[in-house]
Design goal:
With 195 residues, this protein is an alpha/beta fold. The chain has helices at residues 23-34, 77-86, 120-129, 150-154, 160-183, 185-192; strands at 3-8, 40-43, 47-54, 63-69, 94-100, 108-112, 135-140. The chain has one domain (3-192): Rossmann fold, CATH 3.40.50. The protein has six helices and seven strands; from the N terminus they run E-H-E-E-E-H-E-E-H-E-H-H-H. Helix 2 runs parallel beside helix 3 and helix 5 (160-183) packs antiparallel against helix 6.
Length: 195
């Protein structure tokens, strides 16, 4: 069975909803909307919102399991691992969607494996999955201005200027996730990197 687990990383609750750190939730929400799936609260390996559906039509269409852990970023790995095990999804078909400080705002980068770059959500996923070899869709949020603490920066909402483009960029990130599933990582990197 061609099942993919898409883990949108973020923090639960309205206080965090518009934060840079919650871009993974935003992308997962859009993918769910596209495939006509709705999120329901489940508890497997910790509380999470989960939506399931197919990418495309027909019995051969890939199955998507979208997970938004409600455990707070630092312990996102529990639900990710539990849902991967439950659906027998191999690590290379697990996609983490997350904010990335080391990439300019709006730039997308995709890779499999590698370091976590100080991202606690990724660190928790790598630990729980016992591997770093899952796919990452990295949504650039850029570096904080001046001497602002990176933690404060990612836990702040996107600026007014950034929000003008945000909907388009979320759309593009959702396209990239779907492209990885349908076409593979390398063709997706070729299409989306540097654009």
């Amino acid at each position: 069975m061609n099942t993919w687990l898409v883990v949108g990383l973020g923090n639960p609750g309205p206080k965090y909803a518009g934060n840079r750190h919650n871009v993974g939730f935003m992308v997962a929400d859009l993918i769910a909307k596209r495939i006509g799936a709705s999120f329901g609260r489940k508890s497997l390996g910790g509380p999470a919102e989960v939506a399931e559906g197919r990418l495309g039509v027909g019995v051969d269409a890939p199955k998507l399991v979208l997970v938004k852990p409600l455990t707070y970023m630092n312990v996102s790995g529990g639900p990710a691992k539990a849902w991967a095990d439950y659906h027998k999804v191999p690590a290379e078909q697990v996609i983490a969607v997350h904010d990335e400080l080391d990439i300019p705002y709006g730039t997308l980068k995709m890779k499999i494996g590698g370091g976590e770059g100080g991202h606690n959500g990724l660190r928790s996923m790598s630990k729980s999955l016992s591997t770093k070899d899952y796919v990452r869709v990295r949504f650039g949020v850029g570096r904080p201005p001046g001497r602002q603490d990176p933690a404060d920066f990612v836990l702040a909402d996107f600026s007014a200027a950034e929000r003008k483009e945000l909907e388009f960029l979320i759309d593009r990130a959702a396209d990239a996730v779907e492209s990885i599933i349908v076409k593979g990582l390398e063709p997706t990197q070729n299409a989306y990197h540097g654009a």
